[in-house]
Input
Amino acid sequence: MKKTIILCAICFLAVFTIKAETEIEKEIKKLILDDNAYISKNLKHKAGAISKKGSLEFWSSGGLLMSMSHDTVIEYDDFNLHPKHIKVIEINATTAVAMYYAEGNVQAKGAENNANYLTRAMQVYVKEGGAWKIRAAHWSPITGGKGTTETASNQ
Output
């Protein structure tokens, strides 16, 4: 009986250890949620969210590969998106990949409103000067949802 209890405890600890999030995973999830809240409140992205090397991005509009500079700030007329089911893969101490769903409504400044925005997102984050920055992103619409109508940035 004692051996069975010890074996069960070891199995439980092994499962719990595998499921525990790393600090990097927690940091990236918090960053995604905090950035989303900032955009919802201010109707624009935070300045400096993109890596100093820029970010290569495929947008949900289906357009070609975009090259975003470090100082890019996208503005909105309306922004009510909700990141869901965020999963983070820690590559190493300075690189992580986040995957999640974003749904809600969004309207980039001067563009048409998208009341059925539903996409998958993948973002690559790198740590620069102690802060996580976006280095690459891919946004693709989910069947039944709609991506943005933008095909280029106003850089």
Observations:
- Strands lie at 55-58, 66-68, 76-92, 95-108, 114-128, 131-141.
- The mean pLDDT is 88.
- The longest helix spans residues 23-42.
